[in-house]
Amino acid sequence: MLLAIDAGNTNIVFAVFDGDKIKGQWRCSTTVERTADELGVWLHHLFTLTDVPADAITGAIIATVVPAAEFSLKTLCRRYFNVEPMVVGDPEVDLDMKIIMDRPSEVGADRLVNAVAAHKIFGGPLVVLDFGTATTFDVIDGEGNYLGGVIAPGVNLSIKALHMAAAQLPMVAIEAPRSVVGKNTVEAMQSGVYWGYVAMIEGLLARIRKDQGVDNMKIVATGGLAPLFAKVMDEIEHLHSDLTMLGLLMIYRRNSNKTN
Asked: Which GO BP terms, alphabetically (predicted)?
């Protein structure tokens, strides 16, 4: 079995693959002070609850955009699962993808993993739209090369910024209001964020297509809020909640086969 770990700015997601099937998946908040021992005890307990034997783990792969969390995650794999983890971004880990950027090392590991999975599943050219801590647009050409992208503040960050900066604006749930013109403060905030992001995404996708000179780019959305926005956006052709985890599985298999 493979232990796949995706450490983002907000959450760390752990998944166990038994072949192509996700046997178990769990998440915890990203806290760099959390030790490998704390993670190990927590994860072993969850393994027990879902009948996943810890000693069945034969490999591990990590993608992290939080450098301070990497040491604990590596130690977790070594100490509690007796495996040496593969880390996306290490020079020896082959993504089978050209990264056509000024500084390829600056691209977040999660964005590269998503790009690998999306191109392998859906083909290209395409844009991966990820609703995470940031809202990101990653552009991949027909050959699977990573061309670059766009980074915008995440939806939840926008809500928090409004609440923190304006004394009379509350924290609100992210959902589509009953009309674009809000009849109260909560609805007005929800409209601004929800329809504001819809307009931003539609506008950026149109500009990306124009910039690249490609009209038929596929749009693949992932992240927790993707379904909420996909239901009102015809541009989003594909939803995939496990895109990052499947990308980690693909990368692990490619590199394991090369070393065996």
From this structure: coenzyme A biosynthetic process
Q: How far apart are CA 216 and CA 239, in angstroms?
A: 17
**Burial class (CB within 10 angstroms; exposed 0-12, middle 13-18, buried 19+) of 168:** exposed
SS (H, E, C) 3-20: EEEEECCCEEEEEEEECC
Fold of 2-87: Nucleotidyltransferase; domain 5 (3.30.420)
CA gyration radius, the chain: 19
Catalytic residue among 110, 215, 234, 242, which? 110
CB atoms within 10 A of CB 52: 18
133 known member of a binding site: yes
Active site residue 110: yes
Contact of 218 with 122, CB cutoff 8 Å: yes
Do the domains spanning 2-87 and 104-246 agree at the CATH topology level?
yes
User: What does pTM read for this prediction?
Assistant: 0.91
What the block records as the tokens of 213 is 């000179």
Length of the chain counted residue by residue: 260
pLDDT digit string (tens) for 150-171? 999 999 888 888 888 887 778 8
The predicted model gives 103-129 an average pLDDT of 95
13 is in an annotated binding site: yes
Is 18 known as a binding-site position?
no
CATH tag, 104-246: 3.30.420.40
Residue 209 CB neighbours (<10 A): 18
Distance separating alpha carbons of residues 204 and 174, to the nearest angstrom: 21
Six-digit token string for 244? 């990052």
